[in-house]
Amino acid sequence: MELQKKSSELIPQSQQNWQNRPEWFFNREHTDTYEQWYEGRYKRAEVWQKKVMEQLVSKDIRIKTLLEFGCGTTRFTRWWHQIGIEATGGDISPLMLSQAVHLFKGDLVMADSHHMPFKDHTFDSLAFITTFEYYKDPVKVIREAARVAKYGIAMGMMNRNSPKVLRRRVQQMFGKNPFYVTATFYSPAKLTEIIHQALAGREYTIEWTCTGLPKWFPVQQWGLPYGDFFGLYIKLNDVD
């Protein structure tokens, strides 16, 4: 009898898709080195990203609990705990979560952000950190976030108004940067338009700030819509 050889891959190559397209976070070639990437050349950027996100979220004193969707290996999810917010992580990638369970002591869930498996107002806030760029239906995701989170939605993402966007696209042409092939880059203004569409009829305020500026630049954070990264916070005002 001839034995059939089975693949040792956690996710077979034919199934490394989401939203009908291949995604880097379903490929171990990329997910296995995710944490090292943050500890290397991306470390300085991470420090500033956390600074702006803390500034935005800490202004809303109602926030005690938070769900981070697209948590990956829980790089930011662990950090929310460090600044006094009880965080839970959610992600669609079993490869990312297989690392997260060893790095994070809190709760984790594997789910699609378009269909969050939580009751209304389960958390005080919901966060998307460098993950919202990958959603094919951003309006639906924001509406889901506003359903699950009672008081606010925190969003941190790569800024479309950055010369690095062009560099990434050129790299992709030569097959050297697979991480943003399916990403949609937003500016603060474009994201605000989508938020208005998603939250029509709700009462809310939006605040944003940019960072990711060159090291030699005299400031590292400002209120102009330019820089490699921007943080945005939606404060929901029509809840008790």
Automatic annotation (TrEMBL):
This is Ubiquinone/menaquinone biosynthesis C-methylase UbiE. Residues 67-151 form the Methyltransferase type domain. Gene3D superfamilies: Vaccinia Virus protein VP39. GO terms for biological process: methylation. It comes from Rufibacter quisquiliarum. SUPFAM superfamilies: S-adenosyl-L-methionine-dependent methyltransferases. Keywords: Methyltransferase, Transferase, Ubiquinone. One of its GO terms (molecular function) is S-adenosylmethionine-dependent methyltransferase activity. The keyword Transmembrane helix does not apply. The keyword Metal-binding does not apply.
